Amino acid sequence: MPSSPNYINHVRIPENNDWVIFILIGCIFLYVFMMNIIERDASLKDFLLQKYFDASNNLPSWMITSCVITLTLSVLISQYIPIVPKFMADLHILGYQLNKFGYTLLVVIFFYLIKSALGFLFYQSIGDGKKWTIFYFTATKFYFILSFLLIILCITHYYFPIDRNKMFLYYFSFFSFVFIFKVFFYLFHKNKILPEKWYYKFLYICTLQIAPLLLLWKLLFF
Fold first, then answer.
1. CA 80 vs CA 100, 137, 170, 210: distances in Å
2. Which of 21, 37, 83, 154 is most buried by a 10 A CB count?
3. Which residues, including other chains, have CB under 8 Å from residue 169's CB and lie 6 or more apart?
């Protein structure tokens, strides 16, 4: 009997990235809501250049910006984590299992909650609690700009033909530059958001900037 012919399927099933665009559209709607409702129809220039004592609703704006940063950062780096740890992969919530994005999102949320809580406690412990509100007001502007860069990177990463393995090195360099720039931004900002004494500044950078990043790296890539 003649042998059965071997058919090779050359049809490539494209990767479905609809979930990415849904998340990014949701982030944009959050910003539209923030600018139109919370910031009372403020223009982008007015929002970025507003002074602390002239601003209102700083806490909701900070929370929305933090949500957007958390989502976009998780979307971008989730495809690079090696595996979902077994103890997390075995969790079933309403019949669903965590994928790489879900695990990354939980880790990034944990990272920002711990970092924010420690930052609040740090300012309270040195007797400079009033400066905490000025700090997150100023940080909101920085992260607002960063979130748009992350949205652009997400679109490029998922919807353009790039070598993702090579891009990881570029991402690493980009985030290293952002971290260094953020430290200098905090140190020399006109709002003087860091404590006045140099050893408190050194303590803040080591314990609330470097240490949380090392924890985040360990949870995601080890």
1. 9, 32, 13, 21
2. 154
3. none
Give the predicted TM-score (pTM) of the model: 0.86
How far is Cα 173 from Cα 176, in angstroms, rounded to an integer?
A: 5
End-to-end Cα spacing for the chain: 54
DSSP string, 7-40: P----------HHHHHHHHHHHHHHHHIIIIISS
Complete DSSP assignment for 47-80: HHH--GGG---HHHHHHHHHHHHHHHHHHHHGGG
d(CA 65, CA 59): 10
| Residue with token string 């570029």 | 170
The two tokens of residue 135 are: 């700090």
Alpha carbon of 134 to those of 99, 100, 212: distances in Å? 37, 35, 21
Cβ burial 177-189 (10 Å sphere, 16+ → b, else e): eeeeeebeebeeb
Rounded Cα–Cα distance for residues 187 and 171 (Å): 24
* Residues sharing a CB contact under 8 Å with residue 144, sequence separation 6 or more, in sequence order: 47, 48, 65
Spatial distance between the Cα atoms of 69 and 65, rounded to a whole number of angstroms = 6
Distance CA 216, CA 213 (A): 5
The per-residue pLDDT for range 117-153, each reduced to its tens digit, is 999 999 998 888 888 989 999 999 999 999 999 999 9
